[in-house]
Amino acid sequence: LNNLTINYNGMNLGTAGAVNLGIRTRMKGEVVLKMDNDVIVHQSGWAEELEEVFKIDPSFGIVGLKRDDILQNPAHENELYRTTIKPINPTVTVELINDVMGTSTAYNPLLIDRVGYLNQLSDFYGFDDVLYSARSIAADFVNAFLPHIKISHIDTGGDNYCEWKKR
Questions:
Q1: pTM (two decimals)
Q2: How confident is the model over 95-122, as pLDDT tens digits?
Q3: Checking CA distances to 149, which of 34, 63, 92, 132 falls within 20 to 30 Å?
């Protein structure tokens, strides 16, 4: 990463609104990285590795880091949660998936140019990551995790907002 821009908002724009603000400030051809504030990444170089996937294979639309509490895995009994491990070159292996949990995700600039910005179902929280994953697939892109980079979701939950998200 050569530079970093932080946008401070005077009000709650919602997840998609805030991410869209960042997308609007990107330079042409620039990968967009979205990261929630309640995550710990357990190794360095992860942002460069996300970006490298798009250089190796531009058919990837969204590549994310896989939280340690995610249900999706190659052996899951439900095909909606079943993933596929795939090497894309001798040193990089991805985990193919339908929808990428948006805790830490990178968006291919080709995807952004083709499908536009994020949308959400409500004013402040609305499964924008799942909707964008579906739009990525509809636009003939592939979505994946980088499974070897471990991240932890540190939101312990238990408050009314977390209960609302679960419902």
A1: 0.88
A2: 999 999 878 999 999 999 999 999 887 7
A3: 132
